[in-house]
């Protein structure tokens, strides 16, 4: 079982997890960052890096976010998924300032929760 990203990522998506993943298995989902279930090696390095506690080992996902197990896995079914590999945090933050970039548009659509 892989690690899972759940609801708290929405509106934060700061890419801190990407910087520590040894196998680059984070991808850009619409509202959250996604972990490829077949590429994740269950090292656990990303879990403590998340500022909003959005990352869980699959057996530890809180009840209200169990559907995020499928949400992380479904885009990767049948091999090709076409999702971009997530960039490092510094790159994402720089892109955020660029009008019209993926990161810039993301925060317009999913403003940070207070
Ligand atoms: S560190 Fe947490 S909030 Fe940031 S992108 Fe990763 S899962 Fe989302
Ligand atoms: S548990 Fe390890 S391999 Fe899996 S997403 Fe997190 S850092 Fe990457």
Explain this structure:
With 114 residues, the protein is an alpha+beta fold. It has one domain: Alpha-Beta Plaits (2-Layer Sandwich). It is 25% helix and 11% strand. It contains four helices and four strands. A two-stranded antiparallel sheet has the order 1-4. The protein has a two-stranded antiparallel sheet with strand order 2-3. The mean pLDDT is 94. Residues 3, 20-21, 23, 25, 35, 40-46 line the site of one iron/sulfur cluster.
Describe the structure using short key phrases.
114 residues, alpha+beta, Alpha-Beta Plaits, two-stranded antiparallel ribbon, globular, binds iron/sulfur cluster
Order of helices and strands: EHEEEHHH
Instruction: Give the strand tally.
Output: 4
Domain count, please report it. 1
Q: What is the architecture at the second tier of CATH?
A: 2-Layer Sandwich
Task: Name the CATH class.
Answer: Alpha Beta
The bound ligands are: iron/sulfur cluster
> Quaternary arrangement of the chains shown?
single chain
Which strand order spans the largest sheet, edge to edge or round the barrel? 1-4
> Can you tell me the residue ranges where pLDDT is under 50 for at least 5 consecutive residues?
none
Rg calc: 13 Å
The CATH topology turns out to be Alpha-Beta Plaits
